[in-house]
Design goal:
Layout (H helix, E strand, L loop, with lengths): L5 H5 L4 E3 L9 E5 L1 H6 L4 H5 L1 H7 L11 E3 L3 E3 L2 E3 L7 E8 L5 E7 L16 H16 L6 E13 L3 E11 L5 H10 L2 H15 L9 H23 L1 E2 L21 E2 L23 H20 L3 H12 L2 H16 L8 H18 L3 H12 L4 H4 L5 H12 L5 H7 L7 H12 L4 H10 L30
Amino acid sequence: MSFDDRFARELPEMAVSWQADEAPDPRLLVLNDGLATELGLDPASLRSPEGVRMLVGTAVPGGAKPVAQAYAGHQFGGFVPRLGDGRALLLGELVDAEGRPRDLHLKGSGRTPFSRGGDGLAAVGPMLREYVISEAMHALGIPTTRSLAVVATGRAVRRETLLPGAVLARVASSHLRVGSFQYAAATGDVDLLRRLADHAIARHHSQAADADNRYLALFEAVVAAQASLVARWVLVGFVHGVMNTDNTTISGETIDYGPCAFMEGYDPATVYSSIDHGGRYAYGNQPIVMEWNLARFAEALLPLLAEDQEQAVALAVEALGRFRPEYNAAWTAGMRAKLGLPEGLDDEVAASLVDDLLTLMAQSRVDLTSFFRSLGTAARGDAEPARLVVLDLAAFDGWLERWRALAPDAEVMDRTNPVYVPRNQLVEEALDAATAGDLAPFERLLEVVARPFDERPGLERYTTPAPEGAGPYRTFCGT
């Protein structure tokens, strides 16, 4: 293994050298063999005692210098100037098989100087949640951090009860966040802010290096990446749940699968996070919140955009103004594909179809995933599976007539609308079993969501939403 410590070398003000806590009895629970190979790592070696110790951070490979990263962030709208890795370490950077730098990051590795009274630990259930949902997102083609492994530590973690502890080995293009820039800006050290921006440009948005205003180009690139990302979330019904600025990446990857879930009954007001009492991060609010987060990114970058403050603000406002049209374009293109609409269809006709369908879906609270999949069946002539779940049949039949007249492409729809997502009740079932020592349900769920578009016989329970009367689903951050 050949690790680098580029982040710590280039930005020492934002990296605290640290060591993971000892794990009394480390035991590998799950390993992502394909990702390991992609990273140039030998899966067999990672399964060895020394490899498992590396995955919990107690055996540090050559070239790696574990650090806790410093960052700030707006959490539910309130600014916290010093957050940082409170239960995580950046082990180091690897170069994957395609020559791309990738972070190897450990979550649940123990207390750090940023723990703020927390224990720095993680439990088996939340780490396996991040593993299965991040891998499902990857299979759906959505930019995301990846999960390499989950290792049980042999240490109990106290939450509401005592739970078995674990460490997640996470892989990302980097762990640079809007909160990283907020931290650097809050120090007042413009040189640090500039070095951080140059690091981000080199790591993620190299085209910005040749622009007349490289830092404005960086901001524009992040705006575009996040507009595309959130559109993809919304199209599959993903609810992040904790869209703080410290969870908004510069790369445009999804990060931090804490209180997240896939929406079942369609409702823009859907909230899953147990602590989001006001619905700030509801499903339908996600584009607005991301735009707000990007405004905070722009504020941090102002000293680099122009020497004159008013000019810097004007440049930032103009660039941020591209978020909504870029989001709308990405979302509209995605909805056209979900409905199999032909290329060249008039925008007003397409918009009317989409708006009317979403109104019907909200009235009936249809299961988003299975309903869109059933429309593929309707495009082939059998509309009954879709009609069975809609309350206003007269309105829906009228919509079907308009839509079918356009000859929707069922094959495009099947490539766009998944059959399988990590159903909330099945995720909980798998995590409960794994916490009790049985990994079979987790492994089966992982196998199913790894091929989300391929319908397979015998997997009907993986397409079924929670039964009526199950009550509201709530997720937690795991700390």
